[in-house]
Amino acid sequence: DDFSVRHAFVVRAPMEVGQPMLSDLDQGINLGFAVAIAVSNTADDRGQDASEALADCIAEIAAALIGWTPNGALFAPILLVGETGDYTDWTRARAWTQLDFTASSTTAAL
Predict the structure, then answer these.
(1) CA neighbor of 60 nearest in space, from 8, 4, 11
(2) How many Cβ atoms are within 10 Å of 39's Cβ, its own excluded?
(3) pLDDT band at 102 (very low <50, low <70, confident <90, very high)
(4) Which of 18, 37, 85, 92 could form a disulfide with 28 if both were Cys (CB 3.0 to 4.6 A apart)?
(5) What is the spatial distance between Cα 30 and Cα 33, in angstroms, rounded to a whole number?
(6) Of 6, 38, 28, 11, which is closest to residue 100 (Cα–Cα)?
(7) Which bin fits 24, alpha (ψ -120 to 50), beta or left (φ > 0)?
(8) Strand partners, 83
(9) Could you tell me if 27 and 20 are in contact, meaning their C-beta atoms sit under 8 angstroms apart?
(10) What is the mean pLDDT of residues 50-73?
(11) pTM for the complete prediction?
(12) Using CB atoms within 10 A of its CB, is residue 109 exposed (0-12), middle (13-18) or buried (19+)?
């Protein structure tokens, strides 16, 4: 089972809509998404190489996404919400983690 290339998958999270602000047509919207990262865990028994590979991937993805403003002025910059990876769920073949992000807007901006 060859898994030499690091993988990242974008998963859409449910949209969160806030209470109306100034009118029924003006509401806050949070669009969430997650980036699941998978790397090989076969190089060493302790998973140390996988931990380092995940740390590298996390740094690259965070640098690319945090502060980026999708769709120009429609959204606020993307924020990192947290990491929801479960390090006890690793297998001998794969190490996984997940980064959660959000971008905010209002219905008035859309």
Answers:
(1) 8
(2) 27
(3) very high
(4) 18
(5) 10
(6) 11
(7) alpha
(8) 99
(9) yes
(10) 90
(11) 0.80
(12) middle
CB 18 within 8 Å of CB 36: no
Note the pLDDT tens digit of each residue in 19-55. 776 666 677 888 899 999 998 888 776 768 888 999 9
User: Using CA atoms, how far apart are residues 19 and 28, in angstroms rounded to an integer?
Assistant: 7
The span from the CA of 20 to the CA of 43, in Å, is 53
Structure tokens given for 62: 């965070």
Question: Other CB atoms closer than 10 Å to residue 93's CB: what's the count?
Answer: 11
- At 75, the pLDDT band (50, 70, 90 cuts) reads confident
Residues in Cβ contact with 15 at an 8 Å cutoff, skipping those fewer than 6 apart? 29, 30, 31, 32
